[in-house]
Amino acid sequence: MIHKKIEELRRLLNYHNHKYYVENDPEISDREFDRMMRELQDLEEAHPEFADPNSPTARVGSDITSEFRSVEHRFPMLSLGNTYSLDELHEFIHRIEKEVDAPEFVCELKFDGTAISLTYRNGELIQAATRGDGARGDDVTTNVRTIRTIPLRLQGDDYPDLFEIRGEIFMPYASFDRLNMERAENGEPLLANPRNAAAGTLKQQSSAVVAQRGLDCTLYQLAGENLPFKTHWESLQKARSWGFKISEHARNCRTLEEIDQFIAYWDESRKQLPFATDGVVIKVNDFTEQRILGFTAKAPKWAVAYKFKAEQALTRLESIDFQVGRTGAITPVANLDPVLLAGTTVKRATLHNAEQIALLDIRVGDMVYVEKGGEIIPKITGVDLSARSAESQPLQYITHCPVCDTPLVRYEGESKHYCPNQSHCRPQILGRIIHYTSRKAMNIEGLGDETVELLFENGLVRNIADLYDLRADQLARLPRLGERSAENIVRNIRQSAEVPFARVLFALGIRFVGETTAKYLASHFRTLDAVMQASREELVEAEEVGEKIAEAILDYFADEENRQIIERLRKAGIRTEADAKVLQSESLAGKSFVISGKFTAHSRDELKEMIESHGGKNLSAVSANVDFLVAGDKVGPAKLQKATKLGIRLISEEELISMIAQADSSDNRITISPTPHPVSGKAEEKTPINETAEQGSLF
Ligand code: IVH
């Protein structure tokens, strides 16, 4: 009885969910829907024996954190060839017309989100996987179940027993704006665009958060063995009848003119769509013809993406602000007459530097073209000269710091101007402290921009080392900070002594040393002393470090004030050494290696890590003590010569890896696992996409 009731409620909720979210044609009120959902939740809670992962209650998500298992795609997820040129598109069509007779095409929108592959068995969603590297992706099923437009159970009875359907998960502009508004209110960094927001949301640990974010999904490709369809179009219509959201905007086109018209129409009309699109996908409709055309290594030869040029808006440049960053870099920022661009209102745009302004001859009062790149802040890409008034004057770039009036300087090879007054220019002092406390650096909670400003105004901190001298009673006396938060802040500052060395290096705020470079430096030099003592030549030996970064590091440590700050940080217990390495095995114990040349699958530092973590030793010079020279492309000729003379064995990257693997499996201790990437900490997936005969019969 109860089971029947549960099943009935599930059926009804699935039906009304589809009516509401996919068809946009609800039959019952939201209240009635919510009431049924609650009734079902209560029944399921009381009767866990009838649990079902595809119950409509899964839409709400949960806080249980899930690991994203890596799963193999039954059929590789390929990408598409793409072009921005209509001529190239026409050539592509002509090539197809040479191979198959009078092909019919399906033109679709190219949705700008993140690709997903859904697997259904007997009408039930059993897996949702991201594209990953095309061969393997991440299992994100729990999160995907919360997306209301994705059916958990299919309608009708003519779907294949087992099939995959692929499409795009995206975040509509309305959800994106809401999310960024919330993030702004919470002082969290904004997301650059709906595509990043969709991809990031899909990887959230809590599916309850995903459920709140308003993701959507459109499906555009069926994959399976022996699918009973002749054409792509037919398969899409069928998929729609099973409950999937299939775009209404796809069209059959027979001629180049029809394809061009479709593109021209959407290049303009996409501005009215409530979600982001970045082009049009043109596919051969007939599956037999698709098979004849086949695949290249990466993409089908029967489909191509025509990409739209980035959306532009034209608006007036009202004024220019000059911002001073924590490193003293000056960034000109344009204040614009607010204008709608790609779904959001734009009020400010970056102008990069003086050269850029001069190059485009940008002047206050001009009508300027604004475009969105990958970043949050849009950029100005041109000026409408015809709209310029006769009185307009070229812009005079500032010569002095807008805050402290110090004359600005230019460093060689740098396009930005800098204020060199590091110790006394307010935004630089504040910026350095704020950077030090920020989440990706020392992650000191409770010390946001405003509190740091407050501490500075009250003379309590002038530099990052001062933080460690703060006492709770000093903080508690400040406005807006009670005793409790004062104590919390002091505790959090102390706890920052736990932060790993790589992040400490990043937190120091050395010019050009970002998160990644800091990780490379930490893994290469291992201790702060080693970084401080390194010469220019030694610095550039570390991955990612070139002359410019080396110079900035030398400058930083040459500064007496910085050295004093570092001594105080050391006394405060901040970590100045990388963690001791955990040995994965001793398969290379007693063996010494020199690495030289360029490698394909791993970086030099990764190979060194690998050697050390399996008990081997890295040496920098070839000598009689060396057992192996691991030689990559363009191996140093002197090293090679010396190694040959000394009779040292030359091995390739692959040989090194198989040496580790063989030794490991022969002594049965540890089997080789992909070595963690020094930067991401994640095992790297390097599985190539197989180009198998199977692919021809995929779709
Ligand atoms: S078809 C074998 N159709 O674009 C080709 N892809 O640049 C399967 N995309 O990875 C893809 N809209 O994530 C196809 N209507 C559409 C699409 C679409 C967006 C994405 C998809 C793909 C990427 C290729």
TrEMBL record:
Residues 689-699 have a biased composition (Polar residues). GO terms for cellular component: cytosol. NAD(+) binds at D30, R31, E32, F33, D34, S79, L80, E108, R131, E168, K283, K307. It catalyses: NAD(+) + (deoxyribonucleotide)n-3'-hydroxyl + 5'-phospho-(deoxyribonucleotide)m = (deoxyribonucleotide)n+m + AMP + beta-nicotinamide D-nucleotide. GO terms for molecular function: DNA binding; DNA ligase (NAD+) activity; metal ion binding. It is an enzyme of class 6 (ligase). It holds the Pfam family HHH_5. Residues 583-660 form the BRCT domain. Belongs to the NAD-dependent DNA ligase family. LigA subfamily. PANTHER family: CHROMOSOME TRANSMISSION FIDELITY FACTOR 18, DNA LIGASE. This is DNA ligase. It comes from Candidatus Alistipes avicola. The lineage of its organism: Bacteria, Pseudomonadati, Bacteroidota, Bacteroidia, Bacteroidales.
